[in-house]
Amino acid sequence: xxxxxxxxxxxxxxxxxxxxxxxxxxxxxxxxxxxxxxxxxxxxxxxxxxxxxxxxxxxxxxxxxxxxxxxxxxxxxxxxxxxxxxxxxxxxxxxxxxxxxxxxxxxxxxxxxxxxxxxxxxxxxxxxxxxxxxxxxxxxxxxxxxxxxxxxxxxxxxxxxxxxxxxxxxxxxxxxxxxxxxxxxxxxxxxxxxxxxxxxxxxxxxxxxxxxxxxxxxxxxxxxxxxxxxxxxxxxxxxxxxxxxxxxxxxxxxxxxxxxxxxxxxxxxxxxxxxxxxxxxxxxxxxxxxxxxxxxxxxxxxxxxxxxxxxxxxxxxxxxxxxxxxxxxxxxxxxxxxxxxxxxxxxxxxxxxxxxxxxxxxxxxxxxxxxxxxxxxxxxxxxxxxxxxxxxxxxxxxxxxxxxxxxxxxxxxxxxxxxxxxxx
Length: 424
Prior knowledge:
By secondary structure, this protein is mainly α. The chain has helices spanning 3-35, 38-57, 62-68, 74-106, 111-125, 129-137, 141-164, 169-190, 201-235, 238-272, 277-314, 322-334, 339-347, 351-372, 376-400, 407-422. Helix 2 (38-57) packs antiparallel against helix 4 (74-106). The protein starts with a helix and ends with a helix. The mean pLDDT is 87.
C-alpha cells in the first residue's frame, strides 16, 4: 500500500474513531450537566490544571519520538516503556504530595482527595504508552479507533451511573479513571508487543533531543492554555470556572476532534517525507484548507445560536455561559489553522524553534489573561480572543519558513472560505 493510500485509510479510521469519541463525550457531558451543577465541574477543573501539567511531562515526549524516528529497534521500545513507567510513578507521587498545597492555593479543602485519585491516572496509563505510539507509527488507526470508542463509552457509562447514584464530583473524576483502566487492559490484550528487560541509555539519548524540546513546548503550550483556568479558579470561584470550562469545552471539542484527527495522521506522514519540501508544503496546505472548511462556518453558526443552544442542551442553570461561549467561538474561527504549525515543527525536527516561539507567545498570553481578569470571566475570554488574532500572522509565518510556505500563500488558500463565513 502506498503512503497516500495508508494516509487516506488512516484518516478514514481517525475520523470514525474521533467522531465516535466526540459523540460519546458530548452526550455524556449533556447528561452529567443535567444531573450535576457548575460547581462540581469547577472543582474538577481546578484539580485538572495541575494534573494536566503533569500529563505534559508524561513519557517526557519519548512516545512521540518513537513515532518520529525513521528507524527504531527493540532497545528503543523497551527502554521507553520502563522510563515511561518510572515517570508515571513519579508524577503520581508528586501530585499526591502536592495535593494539600493545591487545595491551599484555591482555598478548597475538597480538592485533596480529588487530586489523590486523579494522580493515579499517570501510573496506570503508562502501561499502554508505548503500545499507543507503535500503533500510531504503523498508521494502525482502525485499531486505535475501535479502542478509543470502546473505552470512552465504558468510561462515560460508568460516570453516568455514579452520577445517578448521587456520587457528585466523583462521577466526573471516575470517568477518566475507568477509561484509562479499560484502555490499558485492551491494549495488552490486542497489541502483541511486550516490553523486555532492556534499559539502554544510549537508545534513550538517541531519542532525547527531539523529546526534551517537545516536552518544553508541550509544557509551555499547556500553561498558555491553562493560565485562564488557573487565574479564574484562584481569583473567582468554582461556579465561574465551571461555566468557563464548559463554554471552552463546547467550543474546543469539535475543533480538537478535527485537528487531532488530521494531526494524528499528518504527523507520522509528514515525518516520512520530511526531506521532500514540495510534498510537505502541499500536504500542509491541503490540511489547512480542510480545517478551515470544517471549522469556520461551524463556529460562526454557533455564535448566532449560542443562547438557544445553551438553554436547550444544558438547561437554565448554565445560561450564564452564553456570552463566554460567543467570545470563545470568535477565537475558534481562526485558531484551528495554527494547529498545523505543530505538525511542521515536529515533522521537520525543529522543536527548538517551536520552543522559543512558544516562550514568547506564552508570556504574551498569560499577561493578557492577568489584565483581562479585571473584567471577570468575560474579560479573560476577550483577552484570549485579542491575543489569538494578534499572534495569528507571526505564528503561521515563522513555521512556514521551514517549508517555504508564506503567510500570503496560506491566506490565499483559505480566503474563499473566510469570505463565505463572513457573509453567513
